[in-house]
Task: inverse folding
């Protein structure tokens, strides 16, 4: 029988250890602008040798929403469903152009935080109600179970058990909350949500009630002719009913959600210079740090104690490394933006349909940077272009080569699909196969399955669901 044996072996392995300076550079490179601002403010608080050119030198978000943010909103399933049912909510008016910088800061930040949440508004309405203390206590518990979309995510039975109250009291409390604003709040499903809104308008007809109780699935599948026959009404009458429903909100809580656009501060801009385009740092959007002159002079003072001199020298070294890393960060971002400017000239002049394929590896090879460094540099960073403000990542995608040798990015093909669908006859919408054939006729060989994937990516339903009846 063999016993336990121990062996000792050695091996050689080569590893690359990043220095503290390199780690700091990578950390700053990865940070988006607003997080970078916070990081630099912390560094200034901890290091007396660091100071900004001006106390107000740190950026205020640009009052222009990114162009690509509007497209990406279409990819969100919940937002797409909401858009299908309701009109867009208006945006609040912006700060006046005559306000000074301090007032603009105060407006931007206060306007984002002053609005009450849905639960806070419901509790305010509850406080003004004349319900009995028992019902008010149950209603308060019930409001805590309503999510931000306005739906009640707990059952009456569960609430009765948790509040130790009879079901009748819970139902009375639910009826009370459902009478609050926004209309539809406290609903338990889509059918109840829309019926509550119609009742508030005194517009819930027997036909609409039957549609909401029994036939939402047929509407979702666009089976309108069959539904009209089931309801024994004409297709025109059914379309009138659907027009009423589309004026309602499937997410009543969204009325209190922040309706501000996503404000961003682009770090770099691409501008035309003569017959070409150049990338530059955005003035005013990048914090600039300097060494404090008074402490540099103090280091030259012979009377300075050795302890203070050692402390200031350590802080001086840290400050120089931070400023060097900050400069390297911005230089890297501008260099990447310049490659984008050189590659995407047609996009800068014509728009998304002229976007060319570009990968991070290609940019890394051109700039002699690692692909992961490029990825860090473009993460959550924005660029201002003649076509609007875009995330830097927007410009990186694979693509196709047309029959005439023209290179197109995936995004450009998606935009062509969107244009073809917008121009279609809604009574005879184009199938994915037809779209693929039309693209092929335009010199872009794209498989039907790829067309379907791109169509879904831009939030466009299938031809069956796009067909308009009547």
Result:
């Amino acid at each position: 029988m063999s016993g336990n044996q121990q062996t000792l072996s050695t091996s050689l392995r080569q590893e690359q250890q990043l220095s503290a300076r390199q780690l700091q550079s990578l950390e700053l490179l990865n940070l988006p602008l607003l997080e970078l601002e916070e990081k630099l403010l912390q560094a200034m608080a901890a290091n007396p040798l660091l100071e900004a050119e001006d106390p107000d030198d740190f950026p205020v978000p640009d009052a222009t929403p990114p162009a690509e943010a509007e497209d990406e909103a279409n990819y969100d399933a919940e937002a797409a469903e909401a858009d299908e049912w309701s009109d867009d909510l208006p945006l609040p008016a912006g700060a006046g152009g005559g306000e000074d910088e301090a007032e603009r800061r105060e407006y931007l930040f206060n306007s984002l935080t002053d609005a009450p949440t849905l639960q806070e508004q419901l509790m305010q309405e509850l406080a003004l109600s004349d319900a009995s203390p028992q019902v008010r206590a149950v209603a308060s518990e019930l409001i805590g179970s309503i999510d931000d979309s306005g739906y009640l995510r707990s059952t009456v039975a569960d609430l009765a058990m948790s509040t130790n109250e009879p079901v009748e009291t819970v139902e009375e409390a639910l009826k009370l909350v459902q009478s609050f604003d926004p209309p539809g709040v406290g609903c338990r499903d889509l059918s109840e949500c829309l019926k509550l809104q119609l009742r508030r308008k005194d517009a819930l007809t027997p036909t609409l009630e039957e549609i909401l109780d029994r036939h939402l699935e047929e509407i979702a599948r666009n089976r309108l002719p069959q539904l009209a026959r089931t309801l024994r009404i004409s297709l025109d009458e059914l379309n009138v009913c659907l027009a009423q429903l589309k004026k309602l909100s499937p997410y009543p809580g969204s009325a209190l959600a922040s309706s501000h656009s996503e404000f961003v501060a682009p770090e770099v801009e691409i501008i035309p210079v003569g017959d070409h385009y150049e990338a530059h740092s955005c003035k005013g959007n990048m914090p600039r740090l300097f060494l404090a002159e008074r402490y540099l002079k103090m280091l030259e003072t012979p009377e300075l104690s050795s302890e203070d001199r050692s402390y200031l020298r350590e802080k001086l070294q840290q400050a120089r490394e931070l400023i060097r890393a900050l400069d390297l960060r911005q230089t890297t971002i501008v260099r990447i933006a310049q490659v984008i400017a050189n590659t995407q000239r047609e996009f800068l002049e014509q728009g998304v349909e002229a976007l060319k394929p570009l990968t991070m590896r290609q940019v890394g090879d051109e700039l002699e940077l690692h692909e992961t460094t490029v990825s860090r540099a473009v993460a959550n960073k924005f660029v201002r272009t003649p076509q609007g403000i875009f995330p830097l990542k927007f410009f990186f995608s694979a693509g196709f080569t047309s029959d005439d040798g023209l290179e197109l990015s995936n995004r450009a093909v998606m935009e062509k699909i969107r244009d073809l669908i917008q121009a279609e006859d809604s009574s005879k919408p184009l199938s994915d196969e037809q779209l693929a054939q039309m693209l092929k006729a335009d010199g872009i060989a794209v498989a039907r399955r790829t067309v379907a994937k791109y169509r879904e990516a831009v939030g466009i339903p299938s031809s069956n669901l796009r067909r308009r009846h009547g």
